[in-house]
Amino acid sequence: MAAAFKDYYAILGVSREATEEEIKKAFRKLARQYHPDVAKNKKQAEEKFKEINEANEVLSDPQKRKRYDELGAHWNDPVGAAPPPGPQGRTWRSATGPEGAEFHFGGTGFSDFFEQFFGRGGRSAYSFDEEGPGEERQRQRSGRDIEGDILVTLDEVVNGSERTISLQRTDPRTGEPINQTFKVRIPPGAEQGRRIRVPGKGEEGVGGGAPGDLFLRVRIEAHPDFQVRGSDLVYDLELAPWEAVLGASVTVPTLSGRIKLQVPPGTTHGRQLRVRGQGLPVRGSTERGNLYVVVTIQVPDEVSAEERTLWEKLGQISRFNPRAV
User: Fold this and answer.
1) Cα dist. 44→40, 56, 119 in Å?
2) I want to staple 239 with a disulfide (CB 3.0 to 4.6 A). Which of 243, 252, 258, 285 is the partner?
């Protein structure tokens, strides 16, 4: 059964022609509204926040967005989401499970739709089997591994956690559904792309063969304030022109609360101010990365008559010329 289609543009409230910057702004606005730390209804906000993250995961990535746009016109076509026919009469089977099987995850933070079309690191979900019917299929063999994605919060990256995961699949012998629930430990410092191995939760073996493993690939949940850069965090700090010129004392967020930061006089657009030890855990170390505060200088959209007079006076008396050679 094909997964229910997700309209990621509608989820973020943007048009299909939205620019990368418009998508970024829409995500940040919604993320700040529905982040579980600030929302009154925590459970409802958590589900909405995951949905927003999933939409952002696809639309903020040019390659995924292109795939999604190509898929959109045919998603509900009876043949639109089917695997392509195998060459020379070969049988197609899912590379993440036995022939004809479907795997549905719960507790990973991603929908079935995302897993079906954008999971497993973007690899093709299908491969073909060279073997035909006969004795070869009756030999003992180990079950194949299966893969999925797991959405991990920055808090989980810092502190680690234990997540309850559900896995639903079809018994290849009887066709009956098999439901499993188990715990998965997310270690502190789990970085983007890391695979968490869950032994024995993959495809069942044949003829007494050992079962395969389940691998969950870490996708770090997008945050309304921070970008992740390895073990470092990046925060965009907006300053008024006079704050950049004269310097300012500002408060900035960290994962453990807000701190005061001194912006030195003469700070330029794009300058990075480093706050040591306020990033994510460094794998294999007791240290943590840094928080980099990146300055962006904003100008007012409108000014009053009095403000315009002051700006004009400053322009007349200032000796600063940004175009001087």
Assistant:
1) 9, 19, 24
2) 243
User: Locate tokens 């907006």: which residue?
Assistant: 238
119 token code pair: 């999971």
d(CA 201, CA 178): 12
What Å distances lie between residue 287 and 219, 228, 230, 319, CA to CA?
Answer: 22, 16, 13, 46
d(CA 244, CA 261): 13
Token pair, residue 159, equals 């502190």
35 and 153 share one domain: no
pLDDT value of residue 324: 81
Is a pLDDT exceeding 60 seen at residue 69?
A: yes
Query: Which amino acid, 46?
Result: E
Kindly give the pairing relationship between strand 126-129 and strand 91-94. Answer: antiparallel
Predicted confidence (pLDDT) per residue in 100-131, tens digit: 456 677 778 888 888 777 765 333 333 334 44
My answer on whether 174 and 280 are in the same domain is no
Give the span between the Cα atoms of 1 and 276, in whole angstroms.
50
Please tell me whether residues 99 and 61 are part of one structural domain. Answer: no
The more confidently predicted of residues 279 and 99 is: 279
Answer yes or no: is pLDDT of 81 > 60. no
Task: Say what the pTM is.
Answer: 0.72
Q: Which one-letter DSSP state was computed for residue 281?
A: B
Q: Please tell me the total count of domains within the chain.
A: 3
Domain boundary among 205, 222, 239: 222
At residue 56, the pLDDT reads 93
pLDDT, tens digit, for every residue of 211-251?
A: 889 999 999 988 889 999 999 999 999 999 999 999 999 99
| Structural domain range at position 180 | 94-126+142-222
| CB contact at 8 A, 220 and 228 | yes
Identify whether residues 15 and 70 lie together within a single domain.
yes
